[in-house]
Amino acid sequence: MISSDPPVSLPELAPGRRVGRLAGALLDRLEEVLIASLIAAATALVFVAVVHRYGTSASIDLAKWLEAHGITLFSPLLRGLFAWLAARDLSWAQELCIYMFIWMAKFGAAYGVRTGIHVGVDVLVLRLEPKRARKVILFGLLCGAVFTATIANFGLHFVQGVWSSGTRSNDLEAPMWIVYLAIPLGSALMCFRFLQVAWHFWRRGELPRHDQAHVDGVEQEEAPVTLSTEAAAASSKPRGRVLGWFLLLLPFALLGLGLLFKHGVVPAPGGARTLLVFALLVSLMLTGMPISIALGLTVLSFMFLLTEVPLDSVAMKLFTGIENFEIMAIPFFILAGNFLTHGGVARRMISFATALVGHWHGGLGLSAVVACALFAAVSGSSPATVVAIGSVLLPAMVKAGYPRRFGAGVVTTSGALGILIPPSIAMVLYAVSTNTSVGKLFIAGIVPGMLLATMLGLMTWYRARRGDYPRMAREPWNRKLRAGRDSIWGLLLIVIVIGGIYTGLFTPTEAAAVSAVYAFIVAVFVYRDLRLSEVPRVLLASANTSAMLLYIITNAVLFSFLMTSEQIPQAMAGWMVERGFGAVGFLLLVNLILLAAGNVMEPSSIILIMAPILFPVAMKLGIDPIHFGILITVNMEVGLCHPPVGLNLYVASGIARMGITELTIAVWPWLVTMLVFLVLVTYVPEISLVLPRLLGM
User: Fold this and answer.
1) What is the chain's percent helix, strand, coil content, to nearest 5?
2) Is there a contact between 560 and 318 (Cβ–Cβ < 8 Å)?
3) Is the Cβ–Cβ distance between 612 and 638 less than 8 Å?
4) Average of per-residue pLDDT across 629-658
5) Which residue has the higher pLDDT, 583 or 225?
6) What DSSP string runs through 4-30?
7) Where are the alpha helices (DSSP H) in 69-92?
8) Bridge-partner residues for 168, per DSSP?
9) What are the residue boundaries of the TRAP C4-dicarboxylate transport system permease DctM subunit domain, all occurrences included (predicted)?
């Protein structure tokens, strides 16, 4: 929450300020309760719908079986349960969940501005002197306010049209204007939050900062030193002045060029429109503004300058962009991962991994690799995996006599398994962006995930053996079995998700919702490591992260719409085919582009921007869409582990109390291993496709 004035007792405040502060506190509380309640309600409703679907048939089947075996005591009860369930119609559940999900996304995006969770490319901004960085940051915040105010205006006009038409939803038969009202209301609140943050920053020079390690329960005694801050300390004042003005003026210069193109003052050569789109997007992102805002502003500016597409269609795209039941898997998997992170599952998995491999060379390091692989199979998030495993094992490794660099390198890179071993949020984003099967991607990620874990484990064993690092005593089999039994509740989640999807019991979204409810039950009632009073905090954190991703998805849909209307992917495919680019050359180019993008952007943004552009080219060159999705995911893994914006680095630095420069040196042996693995995955597609083909998918 954004801090405002210094604490003053309410009686000392002027009546106007007292009312304003109370109103602000009420709005903050209402915002938090709304988004936490919506994600909880949507999860519960999908779970109930699944139980209803299978409970109806199961109750009558069991009643018939009992009667066939002469057991009639419980038969009337089961038949009564069947009659009651059969009379319930939950066909509206999916539609209602989608609508709740949209309201959560729109209002959660505003909450994300208040908490500073929206991601941006701030590499260059952090190199500026504070006085010059202040202007660039204010520019980005005000751009966010302008964009959200524009969308609120478009959304209001759109809602008025829907209200006049009297349109109702298919299943609920609810007035659609109520559903669409989320667009103007959420955008207006988001505009207010941008202005609120800008005002506070202008007065005090403070921004809300989302600290992933702190949110996940790892306290930081001091902010780690980063490459960016080191560079800022070494940069000269003239350079800061030139860079600051460059960042501010470049977007305006590009907009001016677009106006000259529009009025024919300057002829637009072939490809100029495409270059203008990407140049404007990059110029806006370099100011450090949220990537979602940069995407939206690029689309609005280009549509206004160089197309005849009505801008009112933007409001509709902002709704339909996430009106997709599959996208709901993202918040459900995030919620499941957060319950497990806070619920003691990681600690039990670490004990199990240590019992299995702790007696080998570098036993605790190997335990970190195995534990990361196990936790990745239930969380779907790399930063969560780094925090959950690293916060326990890193201090233990240092205490046991391992070099701090060794432990930090192992945990940072092994944590990246969180987005390769299913369930994977990155895979869901790719599937949504390219209309690819989430289930096939999950199955395809199993073999590559196991292979990468093996390669990271071999590198860990080799370095530990060469350095003669400590080994643990071999655990007897009864202790191994006890450790496995203690962790079985967490490991069963793998069976629920993968088994449920493969057997057709659940859709990926239903599997995600079931896993979230299961994780809640395990954390609160089985392991009892999470108190009921802490559940609202987990719900709010999950909704916050989900809304940030969903707002990027929403604006990425706008950007994809622009790409499609300009036929940019088709033009790229034609250009590459004409110049003799085959699959080998294209995949090399894709890896270089994605690795370069990983230097300045985080994975979700890269996937949502680049996948819709590169995917049509890959299809034209005959590359399997599942193989291509795994390749992109592995690139994202590498990006998480190298500077300047590798999220795993920043999370691990907070745990290991190491600067980013030192940590970058520490991870290089494992990072090279990941690059070798990337080459294998790129040019040996069977690694990704063997399991789906064996299973007939």
Assistant:
1) 75, 0, 20
2) no
3) no
4) 83
5) 583
6) -SPP--GGGS-HHHHHHHHHHHHHHHH
7) 75-87
8) 175
9) 278-687
**Cα–Cα distance for residue pair 445/422, rounded to 1 Å:** 6
Quickly list DSSP for 574-637. Answer: HHHHHTT--HHHHHHHHHHHHHHHTTTS-HHHHHHHHHHHHHHHHHHTT--HHHHHHHHHHHHH
Of 646, 552, 645, 432, the residue nearest 118 (C-alpha): 552
How far apart CA 376 and CA 570 sit, in angstroms, is 36
Bridge partners (DSSP) of residue 175 are 168
What are the beta bridge partners of residue 120? 290
Which residues, including other chains, have CB under 8 Å from residue 308's CB and lie 6 or more apart? none
Mean of pLDDT values over 410-420:
89
User: Which residue, 563, 298, 326, 598, is CA-closest to 438?
Assistant: 326
Residue located via tokens 């088709």: 570
d(CA 350, CA 346): 6
Which of the pair, 122 or 506, is modelled with greater confidence?
506
The 3-state DSSP class for residue 359 equals coil
The pLDDT, as a whole number, for residue 309 is 63
Q: Is the dihedral of CA 458, 463, 464, 466 positive or negative?
A: positive
Sign of CA dihedral 117, 119, 120, 122: positive
Mind listing the pLDDT tens digit for each residue in 160-171? 888 998 888 888
CB 373 within 8 A of CB 411: no
For residue 648, give the nearest of 395, 658, 336 by alpha carbon.
Answer: 658
Q: Give the whole-angstrom CA distance, residue 329 versus residue 34.
A: 20
More confident residue, 59 or 633: 633
The pTM for the full model equals 0.85
523's tokens: 């954390």
- The string of DSSP letters for 180-218 reads HTHHHHHHHHHHHHHHHHHHHHHHH-------HHHHTT-
Torsion of CA 419, 425, 431, 432, to 10 degrees: -150
User: CA-CA distance, 501 to 165, in Å (whole number)?
Assistant: 40
pLDDT tens, position by position, 672-682: 999 999 999 99
Query: Reduced to 3 states, what is the DSSP secondary structure of residue 168?
Result: strand
User: Residue 657 in 3-state DSSP?
Assistant: coil
| Residue 549 CB contacts under 8 Å (≥ 6 apart), including other chains | 330, 425, 429, 604
Do the Cβ atoms of 340 and 523 come closer than 8 Å? yes
CA angle centred on 330, ends 287 and 586, rounded to 5°: 65
Reported as a pLDDT band with limits 50, 70 and 90, residue 14 is: low
Any idea what DSSP says for residue 138? H
Q: Which of 61-70, 179-188, 514-523, 528-537 has the lowest mean pLDDT?
A: 61-70
Report how far residue 18's alpha carbon sits from residue 9's, in angstroms, rounded to the nearest whole number: 10
pLDDT for residue 568: 77
- Side-chain-side CA neighbours of residue 667 (13 Å): 30
Q: Where are the domains of the chain?
A: 24-89, 106-207+240-323, 326-695
Higher pLDDT, 31 or 306: 31
Q: Report how far residue 232's alpha carbon sits from residue 133's, in angstroms, rounded to the nearest whole number.
A: 11
Q: 3-state DSSP call for residue 174? A: coil
| pLDDT exceeds cutoff 90 at 684 | yes
Residue 570 one-letter amino acid: Q
Cα within 13 Å of Cα(642), Cβ side: 19
- Is pLDDT of 230 > 50? no
pLDDT tens digits for range 458-500 = 999 999 988 888 888 788 888 888 888 888 888 888 888 888 8
In the chain, the N- to C-terminal Cα span, in Å, equals: 47
Q: Which residues pair with 290 in a beta bridge?
A: 120
Residue 92 scores a pLDDT above 50: yes
- pLDDT single digits (tens) 374-402: 888 887 778 878 888 888 888 888 888 88
Q: Count other Cβ atoms within 10 Å, centred on residue 482.
A: 15
Mean pLDDT, residues 57-86 taken together:
80
